[in-house]
Amino acid sequence: MRGTFKAALAVSAFAVVAAAHAVTFATYAYSAPAYTLTAFGGGTTDFDGNAAVYAQVGGLNFVTDEVSLSAGAPAGGGFATTGTVKLTSANGSTLLGDFDGTAYDGGSPFASFAGNVAFTGGTGDFAGWIGAGTASGSFLLPGVGTVGDTYDGSLNIGGTAAAVPEPASMATLGLGIAALIRRRRKSA
């Protein structure tokens, strides 16, 4: 019986460690066009970027990077920018995140953004994944923007993410540890 408890404990510990293994990655994307102006005016400017990955580093096989940005002001210096990030793998699994950063109007025709990403979960292979990273990009912004305009640009997203251990795995580990402690106390 003692061997069974030890085996159960070892298996549950392995499951938790495997689930919590963090993966660091970086994706670099470029597409023409990479960005679409989806809203303009009312104190905010919204861009939606969707680019195909052409190079990557790390163990995650992402094939597209997407970022949707809402800038706090249409132009001038640096301004607060929030949004969402979505990375899609070859099998359709997605890793999702929230972006918080700054956009910069470098003077027409150049604009850029940079900031932090909090990964909040995903679908498929990345369900329950969390972590932190960064996102940045730049694009040409010629003349006065009009909703529906598209722009060439680059998009870089990277960071570290890991699966959150499932409650069942944690419960199994806890029960295994409790049983092992109780058994040791009985034998002492």
Provide an overview of this structure:
- The chain has 188 residues and is an alpha+beta fold.
- It is built from two helices and eight strands.
- It has an eight-stranded antiparallel β-barrel.
- Helix 1 packs antiparallel against helix 2.
- The two termini are 17 Å apart.
- Mean pLDDT is 77; it is low at 7-19.
Query: Average pLDDT, to the nearest integer?
Result: 77
The total strand number stands at: 8
Proportion of residues in β-strands: over 45%
N→C terminal distance: 17 Å
Q: Percentage of helical residues? A: 10-25%
- Low-pLDDT residue spans: 7-19
The neighbouring-strand order within the major sheet is 1-2-3-4-5-6-7-8
Radius of gyration: 22 Å
Structural class: alpha+beta
Number of helices: 2
What overall form do the CA principal axes indicate? elongated
Largest sheet: 8 strands, antiparallel, barrel
Order of helical and strand elements: HEEEEEEEEH
SSE order and pairing:
Elements: H1 2-19, E1 22-41, E2 44-58, E3 62-71, E4 78-89, E5 94-105, E6 110-123, E7 129-140, E8 150-163, H2 167-187
Antiparallel strand pairs: 1-2, 1-8, 2-3, 3-4, 4-5, 5-6, 6-7, 7-8
Notable characteristics:
188 residues, alpha+beta, eight-stranded antiparallel barrel, 2 helices
Summarize this, please?
This protein is an alpha+beta fold and about 190 residues long.
